[in-house]
Amino acid sequence: VVSRAGRLARLAPAFLSASVRRDWPLAALALLSLAPGVAALTAWLLAAWRVRDLSYSASQFGWILPPALLEALTPAGVLVGVGLVTLMVGCLGLSNAYLASVERRLDDLALLLSLGLSRLELTALLLLEAMGLAGVGTVAGLLLGVGLSVASWLPARDYLGLEPGFRLLAVPFVVGALAG
């Protein structure tokens, strides 16, 4: 196990740099699909955190859902749900593009297997590559989430009747990072 981990540590930088050179559009797609999803989830979580203990009239949220469903979900739940749907759409686009990229490289991956790389090592390299893409999209999304939170604060404050004073909270960013 130790020798396998050492071999992976030696192979990973070259594999990842070759992947970046060859499939740089995937990194761009991570920025264009995953980052907005993480940003939206983070901003909506921040708003949901602020409204979780407040009560609202049906006229404020009645246009979104039927009253019975709105009562079951609560306005904070609706906000979190909207953020999760946005993130899921971005994840689906990125995962489809990543699967197409792996399928396009099947010959190269077969060559690595024939040169002695085990299936487990190849899987670990591919997972490391996917985690790198997710990391790029998540970091960009968290930064974008700060901007989106600031930009949406005034309209959210006025519409939802929140108390004045914008502040960033850590919880939405931690949840956004984990979800990304």
Give your account of this protein's structure.
The protein has 180 residues and is an all-alpha fold. It contains 7 helices and no strands. The protein has helices spanning 2-22, 24-51, 58-61, 67-104, 106-114, 119-160, 170-179. Helix 2 runs antiparallel to helix 4 (67-104), helix 2 (24-51) crosses helix 6 (119-160) and helix 2 (24-51) runs antiparallel to helix 7 (170-179). The protein is elongated, with a radius of gyration of 21 Å.
Name some characteristics of this structure.
single chain; 180 residues; mainly alpha; elongated; 7 helices
| Structural class category | mainly alpha
Estimated helix fraction? over 70%
- Average pLDDT: 84
Low-confidence stretches: none
H and E order: HHHHHHH
Total number of strands = 0
Distance between the termini: 29 Å
Reconstruct the topology from this structure:
Layout: H1 2-22, H2 24-51, H3 58-61, H4 67-104, H5 106-114, H6 119-160, H7 170-179
Helix pairs in contact: 1-2, 1-6, 2-4, 2-6, 2-7
Short description:
The chain has seven helices and no strands. It is an all-alpha fold.
